[in-house]
Amino acid sequence: MLRGAVGGADAPKFTRSQWAAIGLYIPCQVLTIIDSAGINTALASMSRELAVPVSQTALINIGFLVAAAAIIPMSGWLGERVGTLRLLRSGLLLLAVGSVVSAAAGTIGVLVIGRVVQGLGTGGLAPLAMSVVARAFPPEDRLRANTILSVPIAAAPALGPLLGGYLTDALSWRWIFIVNLPLALVAAAMTFLNRETSERAVRALDVPGAILTLIVFGVFAYALDSLNGSTPAWIGAVGFAVSIVGFGVLVPWERRKGHTAFLDLRLLGRRLFSRSILMRSLSSVGFVGFGFANPILLQVVLGLSATQAGVVGVGGAIGLIFTGPLAYPLITRLGARRSIALSQLLMIACLGIILIGYGAHSVPVIVAGWALLGASSFVSTMATQTVGFAAVPQANLGDATSLDGTARQMAAALGVAAASGAMAAPALLGLPTNWLVYGPLMVFAAFHLLTAAIAGLGGPMPLPRR
């Protein structure tokens, strides 16, 4: 038995199998997040070297996003069918192949193909690794485990742009893909230290459900991405229309299939689980949106370089890392409901601090607000995730992690779209230039306020007990 690193002297003893699950989860999450977070810093360099307009580089992200969004909902069923660990190894292999193709690309077309392969490999990593962790830890121990697990999840978006900017400036944008290879190797090695477990019988393939899931979530992810102006507005409108019709067919079909459904949507009937997903998604829109907008605002409003803006972004990671040891005692003392509501309100206050920093052209104030914002997000994420998955039977964890991962992927895309739209609005509406900062921060604050209201005004959210 090994002693847990979180929670002080009374920390539980984690078994070797539990540490193996943690060791698998962390590189899978880092691979999922840091690549997407870091690649935006290299788009201009890719445009110059591949001799294409900057607007065409949007295809690099679109291809990855649509492929990942399509595969995430499938990961639960596929994990049951071929085995979670075997599927993880396959995904890591696809990720490695896609990374090699992307790094060696001599044309934009080859690079997009590489990114699509990467997306197919990366999409299932996070939900599959989360299902391994959820099976390794009983509900009453997941909060302590999550204080370790969520540090890389929350820190990677802040560190990704810094790493991407450094690699692009010091070496080449191709190294953004090359660094995936050792991480993928570590994750693959960790799969052999874990044991394959599944409490649910393998379901027969629900062919209509599988086809609808692929189309609906892939098209919806593309439509969300179109909101940032990367594609013509009419294409996005068609995408949303197709998605709405698709959801209208998919939901009743899967509900009618019951336990044999490709995507078990009956889990959303569990109020704590669905409420948890809703709160995490709304909060992610605001937090991810700010993480996207802040580097741009630092460069446009304060005149910082791309590298300097990346360094400022580390402030958010610092807040997350140092909150880890404090999150467990705080949440257990306040309870999940109050922890979520208060942390979301504190996030709104942090956005106010950041607004003051921009008004005063004070980078230290912005860094302080960013660090507190990250710390508050960490507490909220821990509480919602612990309560939500505690409401799911062990046999349904595969589908639960697929639904949760899908929701977070869509929320992240919506956050980027909301940030892009809010930053573009002042020029379109003829508003004063200071609205370039006011607008996005007000939009993000609205999402955090809505999350706080759902937490505070909803029913009880009991933490799992020993």
In CATH, what is the class of the largest domain? Mainly Alpha
Structural class: mainly alpha
Beta-sheet strand percentage? under 5%
Strand order of the largest sheet: 1-2
* Total number of helices: 18
Brief description of this entry?
With 466 residues, this protein is an all-alpha fold. Helices cover 78% and strands 1% of the residues.
Task: Please give a structural write-up.
- With 466 residues, this protein is mostly helical.
- The chain folds into 3 domains: 1-202, Growth Hormone, Chain: A (Up-down Bundle), CATH 1.20.1250; 204-261; 264-466, Up-down Bundle (Growth Hormone, Chain: A).
- 78% of the residues lie in helices and 1% in strands.
- It contains 18 helices and 2 strands.
- The protein has helices spanning 16-39, 43-50, 58-71, 75-82, 84-104, 108-122, 125-136, 142-170, 175-178, 180-191, 207-230, 233-257, 271-300, 306-334, 336-359, 363-390, 397-429, 435-457, and strands at 2-3, 13-14.
- It has a two-stranded antiparallel ribbon.
- Helix 13 (271-300) packs antiparallel against helix 18.
- The chain is globular, with a radius of gyration of 21 Å.
- It starts with a strand and ends in a 9-residue tail after the last helix.
- The relative contact order is 0.13.
- Residues 1-11 have low confidence and may be disordered.
